[in-house]
Amino acid sequence: MFCQRCDKPLKADEAEKIDHHGATGAGSTITVCRIPCRPTPQQTAPYETGR
Ligand SMILES: [Zn+2]
Hints:
- The protein has strands at 15-21, 27-33.
- It is mainly beta.
- The chain has one domain (1-36).
- It has a two-stranded antiparallel sheet.
- The protein binds zinc ion (ZN).
- The site of zinc ion has 7 residues, from β2.
């Protein structure tokens, strides 16, 4: 599974499911890190993205 906040792979004991309330009012459960993590920036970063 992957953290849906920072997009990193998670082990079962590192993950936490939280309720995420969307704008539609329909809540959905997302998996995130148990520890607070930084969301991946959505804007284009000036870093090289190649591997
Ligand atoms: Zn995370």
